[in-house]
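Q: Make up one entry.
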Amino acid sequence: MSGHTHSGLSNFEEREKILPSQKILTNFGLQSGQYLADLGAGYGFFALRAAEMVGEHGKIEAVDIEPERLGSLKVRAQERGVFKRVETHLAKGETIPLPQQSVDIALISTVLHELNNPLGYLQEAKRILRAQGEIWVIEWQNKETPMGPPIAERRPSDYWVSLMEQAGFVNMWVQTLQPAFILIKGN
């Protein structure tokens, strides 16, 4: 794991300005009734918005390595009335504690650059996806930005696409989201 801090990541209003969650999830194609795994869910920035969007027949599996973040996510899920749709899972290292073929979507937001083995993690994500499942990745652009990790930890989008293809994903599309992000989708 890298050394940059995650201070401020619990401030959803500030994050929403640079990373508009509903717009991004809509752009990726989130539908009512889907099962989404938010891998590296943190405080629930995407998990909570996704829980609102998938409706009562959908489910969010929120995975993180920090029990405090998952605890905060549970409290926020209760406050937002989506508690029944959100299940939290404590991960150990870079494995994903979910069964094979259990979700429609694996969302990995600003996590891959921090991992020791991003290819292995993408293979784990592939394992938990149902047939026709999709992976949605959000990463930092490979340029200096006012926020985010040091430039040394960032990679160009074609690097991430290549890793995703090595993990077995196809039909990739990439979009730039200013000021600092790239969105990548595959299945």
In short: The domain at 20-186 is CATH 3.40.50.150 (Rossmann fold). The chain has one domain: 20-186. The chain has six helices and seven strands.
